[in-house]
Amino acid sequence: MAVRFAYKGVEYPTALKLSKELPMLASVLVQWSEDADWFAANVASLCYDTDLYKPGSKVATRVVEHCRDSGHNTVLEHNVFSFVKKVPIFVARQDLRARHASFDERSLRYCRADDGSLVYYTPKELLQPGRESELNQWQYVHEQAIELYSRLTDEEILEGEKARSVLPVGIATTYTDTRNAWAWRHHSMKRLCLRAQDEIRLVRRQEVNQLIKVAPLLFGDLNMPCYMQNQGCPETKTCGVIELNETSRLAVAYERMLERKEKHPVE
User: Fold this and answer.
1) How far apart are CA 94 and CA 36, in angstroms?
2) Could you tell me what percent of the chain has a pLDDT over 90?
3) Annotated catalytic, 249?
4) I need a surface site. Which of 22, 29, 110, 223 has the fewest CB within 10 A?
5) Distance CA 167, CA 143 (A)
């Protein structure tokens, strides 16, 4: 397993140090299966009695892509990937609904606010001209909640486990999120869809971009379901933004791109 606590070129000695430096809505890959594509190919080759020859060979590529696209999910599950995240609590709670995932979160039962780590999320809509009144109210509510939580805990008026109930769900939380390759694929397709909430879609796109770098075969095709072969839009009520082929449920623009590639393959 490879382990690295780094953000924007800066290395940190621990996950804790990294988490305190992350901005809101950031997610960083900190541990991953090395040579995940090659290992997945070997797992599959054992099943199919296939000679692979070497990493990156056409046979190895084809066997991984076959398992990835055909639903042979167990081949993917042998590789795991971990992220450290800093997101609003309301985003974290969407993550925590996921199956086949392990989480460890910064506990407001034991931690204190005196290190400045209690910050809150401000939606971009409130930063627009004409929304100054709503922005001021938003800031006031969050800052008052943080101040009260801090006083209740620092002065030992309440235990942290009770005092934390005063905090809004826009407050930041940090946690480690570990899933196997299949789980990351499954959950990413759901949260990259335009019908997913903006904030979690932004976080998931960051994660997918990082996963592609370390395992391009396992994750290189990940996108919105309507932009993936063998997938298509699963929603009864669509986003209304992307034109779909009513039969395949794939994005029309995506199918046109596939047709062009078929007619003019890259040599």
Assistant:
1) 27
2) 73
3) no
4) 110
5) 10
